């Protein structure tokens, strides 16, 4: 189980290779790569700036990974979230889950992303054409958590 917050970009291929290294017990790997969008709420986004609360944010990522591991049979979890200034098209987040079977891999990956979007302390500021704004959480992100309230 690996969780990282970093400024530098990541390589999906390298991270999957690292997770798989010499493992033959993994039957399924699911990956999610989130990218910076060029439009948000109808406005053109030039840059985003991501900040976090050092120590607390890392602990929150670890707790989410641990919750996923206690809910599904998982052989590996990788969560990487970038901070700093990013441009549209840049990779911002990576979640990889590995399990013996596909359902656990798919579901746990979605679970981690849903919780990451709503329960981890990141501050995102968008730089638009003539102004900037802080991004607030979406109701749809909070609604996504509801499907995970009952144990699998």
Short description:
It contains four helices and ten strands. With 152 residues, the chain is α+β, with helices and mostly antiparallel strands.
How would you summarize the topology of this molecule?
Elements: E1 2-6, H1 12-20, E2 28-35, E3 39-40, E4 43-44, E5 47-52, H2 56-71, E6 76-82, E7 84-86, E8 91-99, H3 102-119, E9 122-127, E10 132-134, H4 139-145
Parallel strand pairs: 1-6
Antiparallel strand pairs: 2-8, 3-4, 5-7, 5-9, 6-8, 9-10
Helix pairs in contact: 2-3, 3-4
Characterization of the model:
This protein has 152 residues and is an alpha+beta fold. It has one domain: Molybdopterin biosynthesis MoaE subunit (Aldehyde Oxidoreductase, domain 3, Alpha-Beta Complex), CATH 3.90.1170. 33% of the residues lie in helices and 34% in strands. The protein contains four helices and ten strands, in the order βαββββαβββαββα. The strands form three sheets. Strands 1-6-8-2 form a four-stranded mixed beta sheet, with helices on both faces. The chain has a four-stranded antiparallel beta sheet with strand order 7-5-9-10, with no helix packed on it. A hairpin with a 2-residue loop joins β3 and β4. It is globular.
What are the defining features of this structure?
Aldehyde Oxidoreductase, domain 3, 10 strands, 4 helices, alpha+beta, 33% helix, 152 residues, four-stranded antiparallel sheet
Number of E strands? 10
CATH superfamily: Molybdopterin biosynthesis MoaE subunit
Number of domains: 1
Determine and state the CATH class. Alpha Beta
Q: How can the largest sheet be summarized?
A: 4 strands, mixed
Query: How helical, in percent, are the residues?
Result: 25-40%
Distance between the termini: 21 Å
Which residues sit in consecutive blocks of at least 5 with pLDDT less than 50?
A: none
In terms of DSSP E residues, the strand content is 25-35%
Number of discrete helical segments: 4
The overall pLDDT average reads 95
Order of helices and strands: EHEEEEHEEEHEEH
CATH fold annotation: Aldehyde Oxidoreductase, domain 3
Q: What structural class do the secondary elements suggest?
A: alpha+beta
Alpha-carbon Rg, integer: 16 Å
